[in-house]
Amino acid sequence: MRTIPDSVVVGIGKGGSCKTTLSTQLAGIWASEGKRILLADLDMQASASKVVGLDPGQHGDGRHLMDSVMYGDELVTVKARDNLEIVVAGRHTKTLSNHLVTAANGPESFALPFEKVVASGRFDRLVFDLPPSGSSRLADMAMQTGKYLLVPTSSGVDNIEGLRVLAGELEELESNILLLGVVLMKISAAAPRKRAEARQDVANILAGVADPFQTIIREAGAAYDDSRKAGLFIHEYAEWASTVSVANQIRGGIKIPTNLADLAREFYELADEVDDRIALAERLLDGGTTHE
Question: Side by side, which strands form the sheet with 178-184?
Answer without folding.
Answer: 78-81, 84-87, 37-41, 125-129, 7-10, 148-153, 178-184
